[in-house]
Amino acid sequence: MSGPPSAPSRSRSRSRRPAARLGTGFGAIAIAIAAAAIIWLPFVEFKTSRIATGRPLSLFASLATGWGPAVAASLVLGAAIASFAAGLRTRLIAALLGFAVVALAVGRAAEALTPAGNRIARISPGAGCWVLLLAFGLMATNALSRFRLRPARRVLALLATAAVVYAAFAAGLFDQLSVMREYTVNAGGFAREARRHLLLAAGSIAPAVLVGVPIGVLCHLIPPVRAAVLQTLNLIQTIPSIALFGILMVPLGALATAHPWLGELGVRGIGAAPALIALFLYALLPVATSTVVGLGRVSAAAIDAARGMGLTHGQVLRAIELPLALPSILTGIRIVLVQNIGLATIAALIGGGGFGTFVFQGIGQTAIDLVLLGAIPIVVLGFSCAVLLDALVDLLQGTPP
Fold first, then answer.
1. Distances in Å between the alpha carbon of 359 and those of 138, 275, 342, 347, 366?
2. In this structure, are 235 and 104 located in the same domain?
3. Residues 210 and 321 in one domain
4. Is residue 340 part of a domain?
5. Which of 67, 165, 210, 288 would staple 215 via disulfide (CB 3.0–4.6 Å)?
6. First-to-last CA distance in the chain?
7. Same structural domain for residues 352 and 244?
8. Among candidates 273, 286, 269, which has minimal Cα distance to 233?
9. Is 58's pLDDT higher than 70?
């Protein structure tokens, strides 16, 4: 006959109870959200044209007879498994399958609702579809975060997801959705604006690193300079992006007028030049700050050992301090890259191009699907860059691949 549980086992059992109750509560909320989205929120919206008022349709009304109840039941069951299953692998698979079912259902609904040969009608995902995608996406993200995947596996998971999504689009599963109709109309311009967006985001990062890292090193070596420099860079961060773009248009326009050869090189008051300079200025503070923080975290013992070996201050900085501070510097670059991918959207307002072109055209034409054509790639691009750079930072910090 076993005796009473020991004090540590009693404390562990008590610590598990709040977590179990918390997990049960989140699971019940997830199922309630899925059920509410299915019953009360429109799954798709049918529009006779791209700017017409949409007619909301439920999940049951948008799919063929018999498919609606089957899809609804599978989604509720998937939410329950993704919330209450004992194994993390089971939860992840259930969440991913739920996400896939929602995506396939909205593609099938668009195909079923589009009249044959009609290229004017638009079928857009409704609020219920977006809520379900968000719910299953959060469940999958929660399960993945608990797996604590190593860097290489995170990258492979990203590549596998990209391959599956590409195969689904290549197979034409979503061709009848309104956002894909907009892509078909703007296919030529989409590739051009994608290149411009990448140029604005990445083209502003390279000079920011070349300038920001030396500024951070200077602030680290000369502490009295640090406050003035970082406060100046912080002041730039407080200027709204559209205001900074506008401020830069005046001197750049004057330079192009005074020196026509600069205009031929692309330095003008309107276009990519003011956007690139503004994004460069916004990137300086995070890069410089992360450099200062990384250098400040270098072990004093490592520096003393290097100096004891006869290394000069410059050699210690190049061979010891900067390599050890590299993970922190890359973290700052990750923040800047994701930030600039979003800020580059505003460049379309001053002729800089990028995905913001579709966003603002859609706003001006009251065409939400055109807005999504620009907004979705921005989100995907920012998320992908964050995953890749996070994996690189973990590798540099010694995490096994």
1. 25, 17, 12, 11, 10
2. no
3. yes
4. yes
5. 288
6. 48
7. yes
8. 286
9. yes
For 268-303, how does the pLDDT look when each residue is reduced to its tens digit (9 = 90+)? 777 788 888 889 999 999 999 999 999 888 888 888
Q: Does a structural domain hold residue 4?
A: no
The residue-averaged pLDDT of 80-88 equals: 83
Q: CA dihedral defined by 339, 341, 347, 348, rounded to 10 degrees?
A: -140
* Residue 347 CB contacts under 8 Å (≥ 6 apart), including other chains: 200, 245, 272, 275, 279, 353, 354, 356
Q: Any alpha helices (H) in 65-221, and if so which ranges? A: 67-84, 88-113, 127-147, 151-170, 178-185, 187-221
pTM (global) more than 0.90: no
- What's the pLDDT score for residue 13? 45
In what order do the strands lie in the sheet containing 122-125? 55-57, 44-47, 122-125
Average pLDDT value over all residues in the chain: 84
Decide if 153 is inside a domain: no
Written as six digits, the tokens of 113 are 């609702």
| pLDDT over 90 (residue 163) | yes
Q: Mark which of 126, 148, 170 sits at the end of a domain.
A: 148
In a domain, 191, yes or no: yes
DSSP helix, strand, coil percent of the chain (3-state; round to 5): 80, 5, 20
What's residue 17's pLDDT? 47
Backbone angles phi, psi at 366, to 5 degrees: 55, 40
The letter for the amino acid at 365 is Q
- What pLDDT score does 341 carry? 92
Give the Å distances, CA to CA, from 301 to 167, 216, 322.
53, 22, 15
Region 358-371: mean pLDDT is 88
Residue 120 shares a structural domain with residue 264: no
Q: Please state the domain count of the chain.
A: 2
231 lies in the same domain as 106 = no
Q: Is residue 136 domain-shared with residue 235, that is, in the same domain?
A: no
Contact partners, residue 198, CB within 8 Å, separation at least 6: 381
**For residue range 129-155, what is the model confidence (pLDDT) as tens digits?**
999 999 898 888 888 878 777 888 888
Task: Give yes or no: residues 320 and 235 share one domain.
Answer: yes
Q: Can you tell me the distance from the alpha carbon of 392 to that of 244, in angstroms, rounded to the nearest whole number? A: 32
CA 338 from centre of chain: 7
CB neighbours of residue 240 within 10 Å: 9
Structural domain range at position 296? 187-396
Whether 255 has a pLDDT exceeding 70, the answer reads yes
Tokens describing residue 305 = 């050992």
For residue 260, how many C-alpha atoms fall within 13 Å in the half-sphere facing its CB? Answer: 0
